[in-house]
């Protein structure tokens, strides 16, 4: 329902933007007209992108991080191409009208027309963010660096908006057009301020989170226990994650996403992290009493989306943390498949075994190479999964792990005929 609603809202706004563009008049050459239209669509996509990253609770609980992240990526690259097209068509269009080379016309526009230089800077910033978001670059970059570079997007938004106000003919073509664009940008920016600033500040002032203990789980895995005031009023559920900011001298500026590794009990929260980067590796040095600033809870990987009485949980690596928390809340019969490369990589295995025993759940720990040959094919292939869970079509399937493993499991459950509405996935590339 939420997904269909977002599609409908975007389609309706595309229609409104097109109608306002036509109403403003078509009194220029074709290149300039196409440039203006792509610029308007780019502005609309930029506002829609702000809505996707606002982390509004209503939207996040229904769509979840995985789907929002996917949309954010596709909208981001679509926005990049729209703005590039806008710049190219406008430059070549006005160059044709002025009988100037395109480069000379671009310099002339930047130095003589209000707002054009700001738009160029905004485009450069968006190109930078788009470059570091490409898969080959993202894999080689620490989360903290990637997140910091993404903050430049907000500067680009302000510059682009000021450009639209300064030279956007459609923006000022009529009172209706002006009111529409102020409404679009006001709603988008207001959503970001509410979801990313006002709500987190209010929750942290209310709950005053702090570390109470740090427990090593293995050589490279640590659990952090956090308490605070009135935690029973914090709307957190098993399977969700927070962006955690530990307020020490060397970490206060870093926000790291970690899932809850235990169901919230109203008294404390627990996260379990593996040392994947410099930020997560330093968690072991945290001291009890350290203040914590948390944004969240985020994610739709919860029992709210359960549609069947029984469930299959599939986890890979440290993706077991939200799955272990879900195991506490799920009702009905549960089967857990935990995929790790080596037995010693199985985080929280003793807790999983205890929970499985107490709840009557079935736990399968699958180890070895992902391309290992078994009588049933790949370890997480359709035959192996159906052998472990013969009634899989009658279960909800929750999958959380590295992107490659998650994609492989999703392909397997599709081949096994599990209805789409029963499959819930979170690729553990951000929230882990």
UniProtKB/TrEMBL annotation:
It comes from the Bacteria. Its main location: membrane. CDD domains: FNR_like_3. One of its GO terms (molecular function) is 2 iron, 2 sulfur cluster binding. Its cofactor is FAD. The keyword RNA-binding does not apply. It is found in: Membrane. The keyword Ribosomal protein does not apply. InterPro entries: FAD-bd_FR_type, Fe3_Rdtase_TM_dom, FNR_nucleotide-bd, MRET, OxRdtase_FAD/NAD-bd, Riboflavin_synthase-like_b-brl. Residues 204-304 form the FAD-binding FR-type domain. Signal peptide: none annotated. The chain crosses the membrane at residues 7-27, 33-53, 74-95, 115-137, 149-167, 179-199. It is a multi-pass membrane protein. Keywords: 2Fe-2S, FAD, Flavoprotein, Iron, Iron-sulfur, Membrane, Metal-binding, Oxidoreductase, Transmembrane, Transmembrane helix. Pfam families: Ferric_reduct, NAD_binding_1. One of its GO terms (cellular component) is membrane. PANTHER family: 1,2-PHENYLACETYL-COA EPOXIDASE, SUBUNIT E, NADH OXIDOREDUCTASE HCR. This is Putative ferric reductase.
């Amino acid at each position: 329902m939420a997904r269909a609603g977002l599609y409908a809202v975007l389609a309706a706004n595309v229609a409104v933007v097109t109608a306002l563009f036509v109403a403003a008049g078509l009194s220029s050459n074709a290149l300039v007209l196409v440039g203006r239209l792509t610029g308007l669509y780019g502005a609309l996509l930029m506002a829609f992108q702000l809505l996707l990253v606002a982390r509004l609770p209503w939207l996040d609980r229904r769509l979840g991080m995985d789907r929002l992240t996917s949309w954010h990526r596709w909208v981001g690259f679509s926005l990049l191409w729209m703005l590039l097209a806008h710049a190219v068509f406008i430059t070549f269009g006005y160059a044709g009208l002025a009988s100037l080379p395109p480069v000379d016309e671009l310099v002339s526009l930047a130095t003589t027309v209000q707002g054009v230089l700001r738009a160029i800077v905004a485009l450069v910033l968006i190109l930078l963010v788009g470059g570091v978001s490409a898969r080959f670059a993202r894999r080689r970059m620490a989360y903290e660096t990637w997140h910091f570079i993404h903050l430049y997007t907000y500067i680009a938004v302000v510059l682009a908006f000021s450009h639209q106000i300064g030279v956007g003919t459609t923006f000022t073509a009529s009172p209706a057009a002006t009111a529409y664009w102020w409404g679009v940008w006001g709603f988008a920016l207001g959503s970001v301020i509410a979801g990313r600033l006002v709500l987190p500040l209010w929750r942290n002032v209310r709950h005053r989170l702090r570390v109470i203990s740090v427990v090593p789980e293995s050589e490279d895995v640590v659990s952090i226990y956090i308490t605070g005031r009135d935690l029973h009023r914090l709307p957190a559920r098993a399977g969700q994650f927070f962006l955690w900011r530990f307020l020490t001298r060397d970490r206060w500026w870093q926000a790291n996403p970690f899932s809850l590794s235990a169901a919230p009990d109203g008294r404390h929260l627990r996260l379990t992290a593996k040392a994947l980067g410099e930020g997560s590796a330093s968690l072991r040095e945290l001291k009890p009493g350290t203040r914590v600033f948390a944004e969240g809870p985020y994610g739709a990987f919860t029992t709210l989306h359960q549609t069947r009485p029984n469930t299959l949980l599939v986890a890979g690596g440290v993706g077991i943390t939200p799955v272990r928390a879900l195991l506490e809340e799920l009702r009905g019969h549960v089967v857990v498949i935990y995929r790790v490369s080596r037995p010693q990589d199985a985080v929280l295995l003793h807790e999983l075994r205890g929970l499985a025993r107490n709840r009557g759940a079935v736990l399968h720990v699958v180890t070895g190479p992902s391309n290992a040959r078994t009588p049933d094919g790949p370890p997480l292939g359709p035959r192996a999964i159906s052998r472990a869970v013969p009634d899989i079509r009658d279960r909800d399937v929750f999958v959380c792990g590295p992107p490659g493993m998650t994609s492989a499991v999703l392909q397997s459950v599709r081949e096994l005929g599990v209805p789409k509405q029963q499959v819930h996935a979170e690729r553990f590339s951000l929230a882990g």
